[in-house]
Amino acid sequence: MRHDHIARRILVFAMGLLVISLSIGFITKASLGTPPISSIPYSLSLIFPSLTLGNFTILYSLLLVFLQLVILGKEADKLSLGLQVIISFVFGYFIDFGLMVLGDFAPDAYWEQVVCVLIGCFGLALGVYLQIIADFTMVPGDGFAYALSVKIKRKPYRVVRVCSDVTMIVIAALLGFIAMGGTGGVREGTVICALLIGTIAGVYFSKLRWLTVRLFPEDAQETVVTAEPAGGSGASGQ
């Protein structure tokens, strides 16, 4: 975490989190699945409709924070984990807010659903970009993958992140099969998100470098352009 211009970093990080949350809501409304990071909460929200996607996102995020504490033990950064607890609640409330704003929006034609997923991918990638340049802290999904990469020292973060996302998708699909006889929150939209968001985020880093320089000129040269956390901070492709 960078401690210079902390208020600006928090603001940019929060903006990124809001954009990601709204994008997740937009993709979810397309009814073609949801991004990997939301696949398990979404499947659970379909199985137990008394709780919202945001509610399950909070619970799932808190679980990931707890698992980081278990994995890292004495090596855990207590400040980072404390921030992630706060972010867990904000993230969940933002997702429910986005779904509330979208209301009854529900594209009918399949091509419209695919277009909505693609638009959502661009939004998610923008949120990832904002979170990484803020260099404030991680969202719990990133923190969990980073903790695993620290514990499994032979595997780079990027590889662990992919494995983590794939595991989430498999678990979400299994939950759907067991409880509903379907794939739950996993559909072609989930795959599209997994394949595109990282690439689109890379384009943002390349094309929006002027914005990075303007917002954080003091560390623009240090910005990681591969959406991979460095020094324990950053954000994922969701």
Strand content: under 5%
Radius of gyration: 17 Å
Low-confidence stretches: 223-237
Given the structure, what is the number of helices? 9
Question: How many individual domains?
Answer: 1
Q: Tally the beta strands.
A: 0
Straight-line N-to-C gap: 20 Å
Task: Give the integer mean of the pLDDT values.
Answer: 85
**Which class best fits the helix and strand makeup?**
mainly alpha
Percent helix, as a range, is over 70%
Order of helices and strands: HHHHHHHHH
The general outline is globular
The largest sheet is: none
Key words describing this protein structure:
single chain; 238 residues; mainly alpha; 9 helices; disordered C terminus
Describe the structure.
It is a single chain. This protein has 238 residues and is mainly alpha-helical. It has one domain (6-219). It has helices at residues 6-29, 36-47, 53-72, 78-102, 110-134, 140-151, 157-180, 188-207, 209-215. Helix 1 packs antiparallel against helix 5, helix 2 packs parallel to helix 7 (157-180) and helix 6 (140-151) crosses helix 7 (157-180). The protein starts with 5 loop residues before the first helix and ends in a 23-residue tail after the last helix. Residues 223-237 have low confidence and may be disordered.
Mind sketching the topology for me?
Elements: H1 6-29, H2 36-47, H3 53-72, H4 78-102, H5 110-134, H6 140-151, H7 157-180, H8 188-207, H9 209-215
Helix pairs in contact: 1-4, 1-5, 2-3, 2-7, 3-4, 3-6, 5-8, 6-7
